[in-house]
């Protein structure tokens, strides 16, 4: 299969959704538009495989995310009427069709709503005072994360457990923790590197402002509870449609805004929909193992519920937040993800290898710097 096919499969659903947004259709035609986008997504998922595990998972998740966004954009809201860019001077539904299409492309291309009236909360703002300082900080960040990326790449390439599903699954828990951590570090650092380089290019070579480019991830020091990890530290790229789904479900069940019923309905709905979005990654990796990602996300909602109960009980007992309670929180969050992320990554990795994929195909990845260093000193 041509390498262009997976790329096309990621773009076609987005283009169909953008077209649907520009048409500004009411019922029942908005339902027809939604169904059309979902059918296109399902078709593209079946032809998007590259046999590179992390690429396949990302592509599947991106396509299923578009399907979820289609439900949001066609059935839950009227985008042309409620979304507005900060520099926009007239309502989008008043624009001529070509400009509406460009507007829709910009809307879909900014899932966190940066610079829009629906920008998600808790995005990290940069302290850089000039374009040059911003570009330098992004290049420095890319270089710093590349060192960890290269180390993770070296570990993955030389660990035989990544070569077969049976070898990976048969490792003891400690080795699986290391193997899964290596893959997560690789995936995380690659995302930060690519995003940092795009930020540096956009600000240095275009009129784009540094304020238009918050970091890919939030601050790790904010992650002293599981709720804060998902709400502040993680990337927030799905929040645009997760929040409306949660609010609609809470309203449907009759819970008033601000109540515990509304809050926890939104919480469980968000992780349920997020789980569905990640099942798209399962589908591209190995359709016979569909759903292996889903339990991980439901566990997060359960853990946050338990966490809230413990924090509320501690506050009633007179415990206040200090640096020591935060340190306990970091330990709790780390232990939780060791227990839950390790089986998740194991299940996804095993499913991908069984489906014919490879962790890091040598033909796509040149030798790492660690490989060069090891050979140069004769180890």
TrEMBL record:
GO cellular component: membrane
Compartment list: Membrane
Every Wax synthase domain range: 213-298
GO terms classed as biological process: lipid metabolic process
GO molecular function, one term: O-acyltransferase activity
Keywords, alphabetical: Membrane, Transferase, Transmembrane, Transmembrane helix
Signal peptide: none
Spans traversing the lipid bilayer: 28-45, 57-77, 185-203, 330-353
Membrane topology term: Multi-pass membrane protein
Family in the record: Belongs to the wax synthase family.
Protein name, entry field: Wax synthase domain-containing protein
Species: Suillus luteus UH-Slu-Lm8-n1
């Amino acid at each position: 299969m041509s390498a262009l096919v997976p790329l096309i499969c990621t773009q076609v659903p987005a283009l169909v959704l953008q077209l649907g947004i520009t048409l500004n259709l009411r019922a029942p035609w908005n339902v027809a538009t939604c169904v059309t986008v979902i059918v296109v997504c399902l078709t593209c998922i079946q032809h998007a495989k590259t046999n590179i595990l992390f690429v396949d998972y990302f592509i599947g998740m991106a396509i299923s995310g578009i399907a979820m966004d289609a439900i949001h954009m066609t059935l839950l809201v009227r985008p042309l009427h409620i979304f507005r860019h900060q520099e926009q001077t007239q309502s989008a539904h008043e624009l001529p069709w070509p400009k509406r299409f460009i507007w829709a492309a910009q809307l879909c291309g900014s899932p966190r709503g940066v610079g829009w009236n629906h920008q998600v909360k808790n995005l990290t703002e940069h302290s850089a005072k000039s374009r040059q300082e911003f570009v330098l900080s992004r290049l420095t960040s890319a270089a710093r994360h590349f060192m960890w990326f290269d180390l993770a790449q070296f570990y993955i390439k030389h660990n035989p457990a990544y070569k077969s599903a049976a070898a990976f699954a048969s490792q003891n828990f400690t080795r699986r923790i290391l193997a899964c951590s290596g893959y997560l570090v690789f995936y995380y650092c690659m995302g930060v590197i690519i995003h940092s380089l795009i930020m540096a290019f956009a600000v240095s070579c275009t009129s784009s402002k540094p304020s238009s480019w918050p970091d890919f991830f939030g601050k790790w020091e904010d992650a002293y509870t599981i709720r804060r990890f998902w709400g502040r530290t993680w990337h927030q790229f799905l929040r645009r449609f997760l929040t409306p789904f949660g609010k609609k479900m809470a309203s449907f069940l009759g819970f008033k805004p601000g109540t515990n019923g509304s809050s926890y309905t939104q919480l469980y709905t968000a992780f349920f929909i997020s789980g569905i979005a990640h099942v798209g990654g399962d589908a591209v990796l190995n359709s016979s193992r569909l759903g292996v990602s889903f339990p991980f996300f439901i566990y997060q909602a359960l853990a946050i519920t338990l966490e809230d109960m413990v924090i509320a009980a501690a506050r009633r007992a007179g415990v206040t937040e200090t640096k020591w309670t935060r340190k306990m929180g970091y330990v709790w969050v780390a232990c939780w993800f060791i227990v839950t992320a390790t089986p998740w990554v194991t299940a996804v990795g095993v499913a991908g290898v069984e489906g014919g994929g490879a962790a890091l195909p040598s033909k796509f990845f040149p030798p790492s710097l660690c490989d060069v260093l090891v050979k140069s000193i004769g180890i």
